[in-house]
Design a protein that fits this description.
about 700 residues, alpha+beta, Beta-galactosidase, Chain A, domain 5, TIM Barrel, Immunoglobulin-like, 10-stranded antiparallel β-sheet, 8-stranded parallel β-sheet, EC 3.2.1.22, alpha-galactosidase activity, hydrolase, Glyco_hydro_36, Alpha-galactosidase
Length: about 700
């Protein structure tokens, strides 16, 4: 079956992925309408879903509020609109008129469909784009608006896509919420009647919500049940509206932007929405997550085949007290542990001695680095490690040479206070001169110093989001800011092919498919407390893979929570992603250094399984029992299991963990004990984890298939 097929008699389009189908048609009014999204269908079967036009129910109902591919504002539509435009004469309604279609294969294994429409009267073109891959059940959608008139118009809302679900008795919504240092907390709750809005109005993806949703009929589990999910590839403000309609349907629509802003579209101008990707599975939440992980590795991350190195970051060891001698000493201690990438965090530049000054002045501090960064970098390379730096290109302190020279470069409104958060203001990256300045010093910094890695941070949300020098700048900047941010990173990577970048925004404030398509890993939270991280990482894993998640081992008592947990527990939690270390190694005991080196070596033996394998959440957090996660290589030759136990109750038996994803006919050897297990026992009957007694117990299990 072709990936994209068409039945001209019924006007039905069918998009086919390896395990699912998506069908749509243009109805008699010219509007693109949804037919099916779920299990595989033939084109003939999809045609059966075309129903005759419904008669008028009452004078209060109008068109069904769910069921169009991109619901517009106009006519008798009363549901959540995906597209709202205002023409020069004040008219806001849009009326669909089909123009044509095109199909193509932009790359091997990829097929695209474009459906072109125009308004029946006004010169506005709307093109709906669909993309499918032969190795993924993810369907990517986006919308292109083109003003073909000689007059400007205003885009009040332009979502990437709307998604309609089949009728079910009930629906449940899964999403994450949180705040700074408490990101990614998973919630599953019934979808209420009416509209539920998830959003960020902060100019960034945000710590408080993330632009993905999962919906199920209320009966899905980790291992079974139908799940429909979608994720938006956008790193600015966004919104997703989920609606449960009076006629029993459930649908959602999402895109960039926020209420209260608009996008002017001048004569001849075009606007392309960010992509919204979605998938269906009947294998439960676990299968949905694994499908997202595989898609991200295959089609999102720029270097998915790489194994990410073990990283050391200097922040918790030194704070702002950064000097060449101190960093050299730390680098030597990190190398002894087996670290492969050494990163100097905040405090290396300008007059930066605390968070009140220096942001924007990106030259090495003369006092801490009298000969520049070269001596430190050479020492790090001599020790066999790569070298990285923390940067925050989008920010400026008022106490800086940059701000004194360019006070107009920040987001601001005339006659309004410039609110400082963390003693800093936001540079207006929507301005081309600001973006060009950032690109210039970044590319020089990387080239002049042989920088291997940048931790790109962004430590506050927008406020006073104005651009007085630009007409309608307060509306334009929200989109242009993100596009210019992307462009700076893209140019930087094109200039320096060996450069790798970590996305960070005070932790997990900017994690999404858009930023991950141009960075190599993400910092999910500033909270490094291992106990808290179990839940944060659980939420992260719903959509994003372990290969993209940096996890630090830091000192105790933890700086945020004051909690003390054993070093082994901290390592085992951090081994669930890209392992990193952020403690003050000078104060580690000889025993701690030896144990740390042993665990780093252990991680290197299994990181190919963690970073490139399939993930099974064997037991999630949330009760007194252990949490367990398993990773398995694609050829099923190896598996790695991590188990964490907070504080067991006396008399409560340890649950049996049934493993997953193994070759059912094979046997597997435990590399730690040498014991050989039948896969049929491990998966069908399970294994009791060998956890030490006491609080904060953890263990790991590495299994290798035994060849007969």
């Amino acid at each position: 079956m072709s990936a994209i097929s068409f039945d001209p008699a019924r006007g039905v389009w069918l998009l086919s992925t390896p395990r699912t189908s998506y069908a749509l048609r243009v109805d008699d009014t010219g509007a693109p309408c949804h037919l099916a999204w779920g299990p595989r269908l033939t084109l003939a079967a999809a045609g059966e879903l075309v129903s005759p036009p419904a008669g008028e129910i009452s004078s209060f109902e109008g068109r069904p509020p769910a069921g169009e591919e991109l619901p517009v504002d106009g006519g008798t539509r009363y549901g959540a609109p995906s597209l709202r435009v205002q023409f020069a004469d004040g008219t806001r309604a849009f009326e669909w008129q089909p123009v044509g279609h095109s199909t193509g294969e932009p790359s091997p294994g990829t097929a695209e469909l474009a459906l072109e429409f125009c308004d029946r009267h006004y010169p506005l073109t709307v093109v709906l784009h669909y993309r499918v891959h032969d190795d993924s059940d993810v369907i990517e959608r986006w919308t292109v608006l083109r003003n073909t008139s000689r007059e400007p118009l205003t885009v009040l809302r332009a979502d990437s896509a709307a998604w309609t679900l089949p009728p079910r008795d009930d629906y449940r919504l899964s999403h994450v919420t949180g705040r700074w240092s408490a990101e990614g907390l998973l919630h599953r709750e019934p979808v209420p009647h009416g509209e539920t809005v998830l959003t960020s109005r902060r100019g960034i993806t945000s710590h408080h919500a993330n632009p993905w949703v999962m919906l199920d009929a209320g009966d899905a589990t980790e291992d079974r049940g139908e799940v429909w999910s979608a994720a938006l590839a956008w790193s600015g403000s966004w919104h997703v509206t989920v609606q449960r309609t009076p006629d029993g349907r459930t649908a959602f629509t999402g895109g960039a932007g926020q209420d209260g802003t608009a996008l002017p579209l001048g004569p001849g101008e075009e606007y392309t929405t960010p992509r919204c990707a979605a998938l269906y599975t009947d294998g439960g939440f676990g299968a949905a997550s694994r499908a997202w992980h595989a898609h991200t590795l295959a089609h999102v991350l720029p270097h998915p085949e790489e194994l990410r190195p073990v990283l050391f970051n200097s922040w918790e060891a030194t704070g702002f007290d950064v000097s060449e001698s101190g960093q050299k000493a730390l680098a030597g201690q990190a190398a002894e542990l087996g670290v492969e990438l050494y990163v100097v965090d905040d405090g290396w530049f300008g007059a930066r001695r605390d968070d009140t000054a220096g942001l924007g002045d990106w030259t090495p501090a003369a006092k801490g680095f009298p000969d520049g960064l070269t001596p430190l970098i050479e020492e790090v390379h001599r020790l066999g490690m790569r070298f990285g730096l923390w940067v925050e290109p989008e920010m400026v302190n008022p106490d800086s040479d940059l701000y004194r020279a360019h006070p107009d470069w920040v987001l601001h409104f005339p006659h309004r206070a410039r609110t400082e958060l963390r003693n800093q203001l936001v540079l207006n990256f929507a301005r081309d001169d600001v973006a060009e300045w950032a690109y210039g010093w970044l590319t020089r910094l990387v080239a002049d110093n042989g920088i291997d890695f940048l931790k790109w941070d962004m430590n506050r949300a927008f406020s006073e989001a104005g651009w007085p020098d630009r007409a309608e700048g307060q509306d334009v900047l929200w989109t242009r800011y993100v596009h210019n941010l992307y462009a700076v990173i893209d140019r930087l990577r094109a200039d320096h092919h060996g450069l790798r970048i970590e996305t960070c925004s005070g932790g997990g404030g900017r994690v999404d498919l858009g930023i991950l398509s141009r960075t190599d890993q993400a910092w999910p939270s500033d909270n490094t407390d291992a106990a808290d991280r179990v839940s944060i990482q659980h939420g992260f894993s719903q959509v994003y893979p372990a290969r993209a998640m940096t996890a630090w081992v830091t000192d105790v008592p933890n700086q945020l929570t004051g909690r003390c947990v054993p070093l082994r527990y901290r390592f085992h939690v951090a081994m669930a992603g890209v392992l990193a270390i952020g403690g003050d190694l000078a104060h580690w005991t000889a025993e701690e250094r030896a144990e740390g080196a042993e665990l780093v070596a252990r991680y290197k033996e299994v990181r190919h399984i963690v970073q490139h394998g399939t993930q099974h959440r064997l037991r999630g957090p949330g009760d007194d029992g252990p949490t367990a996660v398993q990773y398995t290589t694609g050829d099923r030759r190896e598996a790695f299991v991590l188990v964490w136990q907070r504080a067991p109750r006396h008399g409560t038996p340890l649950p049996v963990l049934r493993l997953a994803g193994l070759d059912p006919a094979a046997r597997y050897r435990d590399t730690g004990t040498g014991t050989v297990h039948h896969a049929s026992v491990l998966t069908g009957y399970g294994i009791t984890p060998d956890l030490p007694r006491g609080d904060w117990a953890s263990t790991s299990l590495h299994l290798v298939r035994v060849d007969e």
